């Protein structure tokens, strides 16, 4: 089924080039990055036993699947560029769409591009002995080169993503299966007894790095206007990509617990490198460390591909910088939107703080945005009951409601444990208000592209 004229934005000029395979690879690449290597130690530090650690990763998967169910219905209803900007705009008001789109673009996508470029540059710089200035320059150059690839061609970007993701999956598969078979470890560590008391607040706080590691499961909804057969492939890409990521995370964490004693695992900054060294010696640790850098590069590439579609979609409605909605006549890419993201990421790169700061700031923004998606689903079920829904959310209204309530609880736990970072997310959301008023005052009164 092709996108109907009622579903299409009349000004959208992006072509449909992405297959289901491309989409699944985008979801996997967007999700499986540095998080699964750098955050498990933080999760373990907050929980008393391996069972609770695995439970946190399962809970993250379940929450993400509940969110995917919601986004599958919304994405198939509105297969347009921009993702939740479109859903909130259609369900409530252009202001709601703009604020969520603003938060998603700057706090999640541009912020993640900056964080990943910084992590990649620092990882390489440590090995080559670079100065702080050289590391910063390398981070800026990385953003520029990745952006240039996506400027030239969507297919180039998608092929680069497919290649790096295929390599990532092969390397993770080797780590998961060769580690217990050939490496040194103890199976009893995987089901060791508790070493402390369980706390609901600590479990909620542990879900912050877990949910950060699942960030990216909804990547395909933002490129919906470039997907072949979007009504079928959007839901499929969400469920297939997220299912593969959840399986990877559970297997990798089991290998970590097998390889590293729990008291060492707690708070360890790089579980991947530590597990590689424990299983295979110093060479194994070095190889896993290099693989982490390649994994970060793959996630950076996927994130840089997806993010520009948000300001592009906002500009189609006159709610972003003029010209951001333009598509290059020969390259077929949203050139100015890609350039805007590059400059935003470079600007954020100059003010990035520690990794946990970026983690909590980004996750709280994700929680706000995805809770808004669920509210949009409820609203559209009531206000547009006759609109075509190629996919209907399974378990409605209970599963989306569970997602809404659980994310609210996680958000409160984060607000209690990391109030400054969460406040920064709220301030980022509110910072979009004067820009909306300015953009709205300059656009025509008649809204284009709204059914």
Helix and strand arrangement:
Blueprint: H1 20-31, H2 35-38, H3 40-46, H4 50-77, H5 84-91, H6 94-128, H7 132-152, H8 154-182, H9 200-214, H10 230-259, H11 262-265, H12 271-280, H13 282-306, H14 309-316, H15 335-349, H16 355-383, H17 398-417, H18 419-442
Helix pairs in contact: 1-8, 1-10, 1-13, 3-9, 4-9, 4-10, 4-16, 4-17, 5-6, 5-16, 6-7, 6-13, 6-15, 6-16, 6-18, 7-13, 7-15, 8-10, 8-13, 9-16, 9-17, 12-13, 14-15, 16-17, 16-18, 17-18
Describe the structure.
It is a single chain. This protein has helices at residues 20-31, 35-38, 40-46, 50-77, 84-91, 94-128, 132-152, 154-182, 200-214, 230-259, 262-265, 271-280, 282-306, 309-316, 335-349, 355-383, 398-417, 419-442. Helix 8 (154-182) runs antiparallel to helix 13 (282-306). It has one domain (20-442): Up-down Bundle (Amino acid/polyamine transporter I), CATH 1.20.1740.10. Residues 1-6 and 446-451 have low confidence and may be disordered. The two termini are 19 Å apart. By secondary structure, the chain is an all-alpha fold. Helices cover 72% and strands 0% of the residues. The chain contains 18 helices and no strands.
